[in-house]
Amino acid sequence: MAKVSEKHHAIEYPDFILDFSNIVVELAKWHDKAGAGLIMIDEPSLGYAVWLGIDPDVLIEAINKPIKAIKSALPSVHVCGDVST
């Protein structure tokens, strides 16, 4: 998790989360086109983001963007912890 100040981390900023998701989209597309059979998005900080009060819709959008970009491979998401709201 990127630290942006002594008291704040990047995951506290929805715009950063969505911008970073765009990078993951490009990585997912690249691996998909390269012939990967399974692409797993590892997002263990989602539970922390929910705990911080990040809008669950932002988190859902951030995960769905790369998943929707995968056309051939089997998409998968790994999350540590409780992500219920």
Gyration radius, to the nearest Å? Answer: 13 Å
Sketch the topology as an H/E string, one letter per element.
HEHHE
N→C terminal distance: 21 Å
> What's the oligomerization state?
single chain
Classify the beta-strand content into a percent band: 5-15%
The largest β sheet comes out as: 2 strands, parallel
Rounded average pLDDT: 83
Which regions have little confidence, pLDDT < 50, spanning 5+ residues?
Answer: none
Q: Trace the largest sheet across and list its strands.
A: 1-2
Structural class: mainly alpha
**Total number of beta strands:** 2
Helix content: 40-55%
- Compute the number of helices: 3
| Mass-distribution shape | elongated
Question: What's the domain count?
Answer: 1
Organism: marine sediment metagenome
Protein name: Cobalamin-independent methionine synthase MetE C-terminal/archaeal domain-containing protein
InterPro entries: UROD/MetE-like_sf (IPR038071)
